[in-house]
């Protein structure tokens, strides 16, 4: 069983990222900030380096993503989606 995560910390990270309303870091598309949390285009946070791959649960390892893109990426280092810019950066 994994280590319990600090949900108040996750909430602070979500708020910090949402203030600037960035695009999805996986596909580059705009995020629907008013969407229901289960909507595929809704905002979720993504650990760029997944926790199970040694990534830190720190703000510098967390980016905004669509629920759908994050779901496809899962716990991989690279998503099976190519950003519109042509890279995953």
Structural features, described:
This protein has a two-stranded antiparallel sheet. It is an alpha+beta fold and 89 residues long. The chain has two helices and two strands, in the order αββα. The longest helix has 14 residues, at 7-20. Helix content is 24%, strand content 11%. The protein has one domain.
Structural features:
about 90 residues; alpha+beta; 2 helices
Strands, helices and their partners?
Elements: H1 7-20, E1 43-47, E2 62-66, H2 67-73
Antiparallel strand pairs: 1-2
Biggest sheet strand line-up: 1-2
Structural class, judged by helices and strands? alpha+beta
Distance between the termini: 31 Å
How much helix, percentage-wise, in residues?
10-25%
Element order, helices and strands?
HEEH
What oligomeric state do these chains adopt? single chain
Cα-based radius of gyration, to the nearest Å: 13 Å
State mean pLDDT (0 to 100 scale). 86
- Backbone shape: globular
Q: State the total count of DSSP E strands.
A: 2
Q: Residue ranges: pLDDT <50 for 5 or more in a row? A: none
Question: Main β-sheet, in a few words?
Answer: 2 strands, antiparallel
How many H/I helical runs?
2
- Counted up, domains total 1
| Binned strand content | 5-15%
């Amino acid at each position: 069983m994994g280590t319990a995560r600090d949900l108040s910390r996750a909430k602070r990270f979500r708020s910090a990222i949402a203030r600037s309303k960035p695009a999805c870091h996986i596909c580059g598309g705009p995020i629907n900030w008013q969407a229901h949390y289960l909507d595929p285009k809704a905002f979720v946070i993504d650990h760029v380096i997944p926790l199970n791959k040694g990534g830190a649960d720190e703000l510098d390892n967390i980016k905004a993503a669509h629920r759908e893109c994050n779901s496809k990426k899962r716990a991989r280092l690279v998503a099976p989606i190519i950003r519109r810019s042509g890279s995953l950066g």
